[in-house]
Amino acid sequence: MSTRREAVRQALSGSSGFRSAQDLYADLRAEGSKIGLTTVYRALQALSDSGEVDVLRTDEGEAVYRACDTESHHHHIVCRVCATAVEIEGPTVEKWAAEMGAKHGFTGVTHTVEVFGTCASCS
Amino acid sequence: MSTRREAVRQALSGSSGFRSAQDLYADLRAEGSKIGLTTVYRALQALSDSGEVDVLRTDEGEAVYRACDTESHHHHIVCRVCATAVEIEGPTVEKWAAEMGAKHGFTGVTHTVEVFGTCASCS
DNA sequence: CATATTTTGACAACCGTTTTCGTTTTCGTG
DNA sequence: CACGAAAACGAAAACGGTTGTCAAAATATG
Ligand SMILES: [Zn+2]
Ligand SMILES: [Zn+2]
Ligand SMILES: [Zn+2]
Ligand SMILES: [Zn+2]
What we know:
Helix content of chain A is 38%, strand content 25%. Chain A is an alpha+beta fold. Chain A has a three-stranded antiparallel β-sheet. A three-stranded mixed β-sheet of chain A has the order 5-4-6, with helices on one face.
């Protein structure tokens, strides 16, 4: 677990929202770090591979990352303005997705569920 | 409504699954059409703007399109192998998403829900 | 038929991400 | 501490999907 990867993890933990690789790179450089963009991408890749951070794609196709409190399966409600996210759980949704899969003869069923809105302080 | 846009719409309707712009371009060229890739992108843009086709992003960030039977709000269960998709509705999920938004003080709440799996014929 | 408008497609530019590769840092061992 | 192997690093180039540019072609208008 290298120092650089730790720096990226911390930069990410410092925010409650989803951030892109370039956001984090800018943050770290602004703090005086000499980290390279490549390393930020590599760190994020490793962190998401190990399940330590969540990834999702914006409508524009950019990958954004978040250091969530729990590593167990969950979803998010994300502010469209400031990207702040709240972790949410949905037993209802979990069951529904599984049922839908079975009903249509699909196996190995997974799902992606994200909720978007404008948070209280951005309203 | 130009001829080319109509050609793209038809190429898309010919498939039951989600297809990328480049997929459709390849299909059309294979059929002998002299359409350009730029035009395919433009047609898909217009079709999705007008709500005639659904768009979603793959994990790799590629945009894929589908001509769905209904233009009203719905979700999909998508085969990870052949990209075939089935339209599904989830009143349960709709309600759940709205509740979650309200509970956390978010306004203008929307959601994305997609289910993935391996379809019967690909298993 | 002449002219204005729109559509088209080859090509270049763009942007986020990955690969490449030579250098630097870290780490295990004597 | 010294040394070499291995891992991490960063700059720059390559990549792949998408969008912008612009002149040519098609279509509409009078
Ligand atoms: Zn907000
Ligand atoms: Zn879930
Ligand atoms: Zn299938
Ligand atoms: Zn819905």
